[in-house]
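Hi,

Apologies if this is the wrong queue. I'm a grad student, and the batch job for adenine phosphoribosyltransferase from Monosporascus ibericus produced an output file that my downstream script rejects. I'm not sure whether the problem is my script or the file. Here is the sequence I used:
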Amino acid sequence: MEPKLIILVTGESGAGKDYCADVWVSVFITCTHKCLTARSVSISDATKREYAAATGADMNRLLRDRAYKEQHRPALTTFFQDQLRQRPRMPEEHFLNIVYGAVDVDVLLITGMRDEAPVAALSHLVPDSRLLEVRVQASEEARRVRRGCQGGDDDGDDKKDNKDGKNGRSNSKALDYRPCLIFDNDKTGNEAAKMFAEHYLLPFFHEDLQRLANMVRPVPDFPRPGIEFRHVLNISQQPGGLALSTSLLHAQFTGNWSKVSVVACCEAGGFIYASALALRVDVPLALIREAGKLPPPTVAAVKSPSHISSSASNDSKEKRIGMERDIVPRGASVVVVDDVLATGETLCAVLQLLDEAGIGAEDVSIMVLAEFPVHRGRDLLRRRGFGRVNIQSLLVFGGA
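Support response: The file is valid. Your script probably expects a header line. Output copied below for reference.
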């Protein structure tokens, strides 16, 4: 068993990551109608323990005395880098040790992460859990004040910070990927953090998501023996399934629907759910089909076969997908809807197609009904240059 929801709380030194994590834990455990358990853990504590054992440093002071920790920061950083060279999988080991030590909670919040794009890097290790990154950011002035008067917050390296020159704020746009959620932590007190959790984090435990999951029929030994297939398209065949999925896609979107110009979708599963969603939000559809099935003029992109599709159809040939030229205006804000995110090959091809049409990754969001992290689709998207695309999934399943 793993926690149902794992939240990686990232950000720069002094942004208030540990403080926010503690506030969000309190929101989860005091939500009377959910009966949730939650815990916050710092992943950097593992490195501190190893450093203290190797050097004789005082572990308690490393954890609780900011001035003492700052004295040891250069040596701690060097120690971490040396250990990483000797044990390249050390971050994964530390992450899994924390997860396995929290099997008794519903929600696990982890601070002190050093990995870039940690959801893409780590989600395949916990395929039965939903893994989120919430990046906490604050102005340089606020972070400087907190570093001077608050203890216990984070192990970031300010020398690596990316800042907006106008206000000294951490600039998430300078990252080569997009965090799942961003929380601006400039205000004093905990009200803003509590409202953020209530609006963006608690909905992951909405009963309608469980209702939706119950509509996904497991099919053993399909498409080959040993595989348990999740029949996501079956949702649309259930009474109320299409209405429920449309409602959740609409409600869970973290962007602004009023700024969305087009809903794009690729045959066949995407057509079903995208059509209903486009009708609800009253924006046009951009239909993407196998090249040659739409009348000219069109734009096209190569779709590489995935190991899943190849095993299902014995067809390992590259295909091309296309859409009508100018159906999506240049610079438009696009939401791509599909039934699943598994290997990511289909969505990569869709994003390449949109790029051909003049739509950059920063203007695209992806919404899928179900994600299968074991296939590392997010990692593929990032490696192919689409890390800045916002990706949301209603459901997460282990296996195929």
